What does this fold into?
Amino acid sequence: MLKRYLLAPGPTPVPPEVLLAMARPMIHHRAPEFDPIFAEVREGLKWLFQTRNDVLMLASSGTGGMEGSISNFLSPGDKALCINGGKFGERWGKICKAFGVQVTEIKVEWGEAVDPKVVADALKADPSIKAVYVQASETSTGVSHDVKALGEIVKGYENTILVVDAITALGVFDIKTDAWGLDVVITGSQKALMLPPGMAFVSVSDKAWAFAEKAKNASFYFNFKKERENQAKNQTLFTPTVSLIIGLQEVFRIMKAEGLDKMFVRQGQLAHAMREGMKAAGLALFPKNSPSDALTTVCAPDGVDGQAIYKNLRVQYGITAAGGQDQLKGKVFRLSHMGYADRFDVITAVAATEMVLKGLGHPVKLGSGVGKAQEILMAK
It folds into this structure.
């Protein structure tokens, strides 16, 4: 028998209570009993996003939220500044170009966070830039960008909005949407929200809604203005993911029982223990600065294929992690600790990594990383 552990950076494990909630008999999304569920979830999203704005619910992956955050606010020929520090920063540029938006990229070395001063200088050089697109947590590298500092910069530009992909950030570390001036914030169901894939969530500021009134890009399914009108009445424009919304109702009950502050502390402690455990086992971390608390990206030791580590974690020990993407393939492996994760998920991940490396012939002292992680996880 091989017990399975899901420690990939999405999808993440779903709590039993949430699975049970989603297993209830299906209800119709236009029926009266769906109304209070939708209303409760709408308020829960505002609480999680730390915003007074409406948070739209979309039946899509997180990329649908990213696409809608371009098509609804920009017109062909508009200028956008995209922070490209990984696969998902690169995606911002690709989506912008698909909608005829002129892209200026700030290319950041993979493993590093963007310097806010570089963004400030780019906006000073070209104040006609309509939007800045960035990741709060770049999942391909395990790096977080300082969206609070970027919010302060973009606030000073009346005709520029800041759009934040927080798909692997929201619910992991503190993101104050309104207080930091984040105009559009996106997340997905299968990350820290502890749900199966299938939903995107988008918070939109008044400043961004003013952009939506002038945008000339065509949008049918991802029409944020029409969704806003419908969701204000606890309905969606098209058929919603009924079971996932019912599951999200239960997710918010779990989250609120813990509280946002305690949730962020727990996630931070898990991330710290994972990072220090890997280092104590003799491994190097890939992020050069500002590591994300959502996942840990670990460099494969010299002479060891990172893909072999990723594969053997799954085949030998039942742990689904993630490998490297593009130029990082074979060079790193990634382990998540967001959402429905606790201390023993970290200990299991570190222990299994040591065992895999030992099996691949790499000199590692078994228990060295585990012991360090245990010390950190026992601390109050």
